[in-house]
Design a protein that fits this description.
The protein is of the alpha+beta class. Strand 6 and strand 7 form a beta hairpin. The protein has a seven-stranded mixed sheet with strand order 11-12-14-13-15-17-16, sandwiched between helices. Strands 1-4-10-6-7 form a five-stranded antiparallel sheet, with no helix packed on it. About 25% of the residues lie in helices and about 25% in strands.
Length: about 375
């Protein structure tokens, strides 16, 4: 038995692999940070062996509540990811599985590699509707990619959607892949209608360094990007700095910041109720968009989510709060589960890349249906 994670997005430390019934593992913390939760590793020479993979430091993870009722994902081909037996005893996370192949991969959620990201950008730019701009470089020297769909115009609205500020929330880039697959379709009537009256900017991966390093929460310097929107800097958070400068140059009329939630088994939207400029009109726009999306896609719901922040108590370092206040525009945070959507569960895959992609498509449909009222 050989355990390895020396690949794009990999994260695990193997303490002992001699006993298949007690393969002792440890999640590596983000660089210059105490955050950890994301894991991604491969077990080799594992065919037809009943194995227990024991993550011994699970109790110290960033979101311990995320382990309750959680099941890890596994794959033989790194394309189809299925759920496997997983338990948490308040100290250790234990994955139990007998592989049908010589090699098997395990992860916290279906990984989205930087190689796949590069393929996604290359694919998108083949569309006549798409332009690709490199906004700058990360601390590790990777590029910050921005896609623009549609041509700017004086009467057009400007929409911004960003994903994966937290690199371990890989479902956010699966969502982006679904969105891009829809936007490149010249024959899609909803896309045509939206691009006639708007230009859409996308940042599919806000945190390339954390993604490649196998981080859960931070960039290469240990910085949580979603706490930098009030004071982004080239020294600490160039990812936010460059994206924010671009948004300032284009303006913003509607925004989505796409994330994943470790504990809650639901898809939901969080608004910006606590910002200084919040009012009844903004509340009505938020409610209409959420209700429209729930009507279109049963995987999305409005009954559960984060409690609304009290008036004037918003943390203005958060992306959604900062942008909503700066541009007096509807900006929302979309959260998807690491586990499953409890109301529409799938025992084999749980919440999956395919469902992320479908939800992204539904977000466009919802925007089209309530355009006049929300924008």
């Amino acid at each position: 038995m050989i355990i390895s994670s020396q690949f794009d997005g990999g994260n695990i430390e193997c303490l002992d692999q001699s006993d298949p019934q007690n393969i002792r593992l440890k999640i590596r913390a983000d660089n210059q940070s105490k955050f950890y939760q994301w894991f991604y590793f491969r077990a080799s020479n594992a065919k037809h062996i009943a194995c227990r993979y024991v993550i011994e430091n699970a109790a110290g993870a960033a979101y311990v509540g995320g382990w309750k009722d959680y099941r890890a994902v596994a794959s033989y081909d790194r394309e189809f990811w299925f759920r496997v037996d997983t338990s948490f005893d308040a100290e250790r996370l234990v994955i139990e599985h007998s592989s049908e192949q010589d090699q098997i991969y395990f992860a916290y959620f279906a990984p989205y590699s930087m190689e796949r990201h590069a393929d996604l950008i290359a694919y998108a730019q083949n569309s006549e509707q798409c332009r690709v701009e490199t906004l700058g470089h990360t601390l590790d020297g990777q590029t910050i990619d921005c896609l623009r769909f549609g041509e700017p115009g004086e009467l057009k609205k400007t929409l911004w959607m960003i994903a994966r500020q937290h690199p371990g929330e890989s479902m956010a880039e699966w969502w982006m892949e679904g969105l891009i697959n829809r936007l490149v379709d010249d024959n899609d009537p909803v896309v045509r209608a939206l691009l006639q009256k708007s230009v859409i900017y996308l940042v599919p991966n806000m945190n390339p360094d954390g993604s490649r390093r196998g981080h859960h929460r931070t960039n290469a310097g240990g910085i949580n990007l979603n706490r930098e929107w009030h004071a982004a800097s080239l020294e600490k958070s160039p990812e936010v700095y460059y994206v924010l400068e671009k948004i300032k140059s284009t303006g913003l009329d509607f925004g989505l910041d796409v994330h994943g939630d470790e504990a809650l088994p639901y898809n939901f939207l969080a608004g910006t109720e606590g910002i200084p400029g919040w009012n009844e009109t903004r509340q009505n726009k938020l409610d209409l968009y959420k209700n429209t999306l729930a009507h279109i896609n049963p995987d999305f719901q409005t009954a559960r989510g984060y409690p609304a922040t009290s008036a004037g108590k918003a943390n203005m370092s958060y992306c959604s709060n900062a942008l909503a206040e700066l541009f007096s525009a509807p900006v929302m945070t979309l959260e998807m589960p690491f586990k499953d959507a409890a109301d529409t569960s799938d025992d084999e895959q749980g919440w999956s890349p395919a469902r992320c992609e479908k939800l992204a498509s539904s977000c466009l449909d919802a925007l089209h249906l309530c355009w006049d009222e929300v924008l």
